[in-house]
Prior knowledge:
It is a single chain. This protein is 70% helix and 0% strand. The model is unreliable at 310-357 and 364-382 (pLDDT under 50). The relative contact order is 0.19. The chain starts with a helix and ends in a 33-residue tail after the last helix. By secondary structure, the protein is an all-alpha fold.
Amino acid sequence: MINRQLLLTYFYLLIYICLSSGVILYNKWVLSPKYFKFPFPITLTMIHMGFSGVVAFFLVRVFKVVAPVKMTFQIYATCVIPISAFFASSLWFGNTAYLHISVAFIQMLKALMPVATFLMAVICGTDKLRCDVFLNMVLVSVGVVISSYGEIHFNVIGTVYQVTGIFAEALRLVLTQVLLQKKGLTLNPVTSLYYIAPCSFLFLFVPWYLLEKPVMEISQIQFNFWIFFSNAFCALALNFSIFLVIGRTGAVTIRVAGVLKDWILIALSTIVFPESAITGLNIIGYAIALCGVVMYNYLKVKDARASNQLPGESIPERVTKEWKLDKKSSDIYTDDGNNSNNAGNIAGGAASESIVVDEEAPLLPSSRFSYTGRSQVSSHKA
């Protein structure tokens, strides 16, 4: 039984790595002027949000897979709308970066995610300025600077778009913890899509109408239904795959999988897109940045474990409690509304730990860990 469960966990991790890498490469292929030739990142993001919102509506209202949470107008106006705005911004800027810089360089820049999240957390008062964490942030920043200096096809516009998207996503994560979790409201993947995707779609409509609609010529656009449908479906499936992974593993496992995925993605991107060559200085800088990321994640996971383990609690008792917590969080897809609410309360109580979020699926709040810094588990950037 243990071997079977372990194999299932590794299978979920493999699905997550494949979907996350696939969504990034797929988006790059669709947006690239050299391949599918659809250089409209806001339009692509709106397709993802519209598709996700429709699927979530049917799951919640028609098939009643999960029950909607008790959402008041005040909570929606003060929490969901600001979070959706920064979510839409992060997707918009992140996807636009694909038009200007390579996938490999984008992954290297994403190492700045802990720096952005730490700065936003300190500014918002959810984290304290610590010397050891600050030194890790300096190490990450130095590594990214070295990696950028070694980039052959360095583009200022693409870099600014990507870094802006990273800070928008970091602020969204901090706002999620401050606004939603402190109110005891935690959204599972389906309800996240149900409430946030339509609002993000509306926020994206304004820049789309001003920036992309005037330059879109119907005669020059090759619209392939199956391409856009499969692209949006993969992005949606990524959200659910992360939810399955979080329900079966801990923060350390997900972070290791995320680092492994980044290296695989950088290697794959040079094969799929031969024009995106990487240099030795790129690799050295990214390796330095990852050292800082790993050290930062280690400190955060260590703090989270220390806060969870009571002084008189034995290791077997703690393991049993964590297993039961995982089991409850993985049972959220039931017709019983109480089950969903209980899982949400559990997640709300874990706000001081680490949210594990993938840069390609930022809608999903963790059922167990709050965000530690690295965006691990980007819709899809889009």
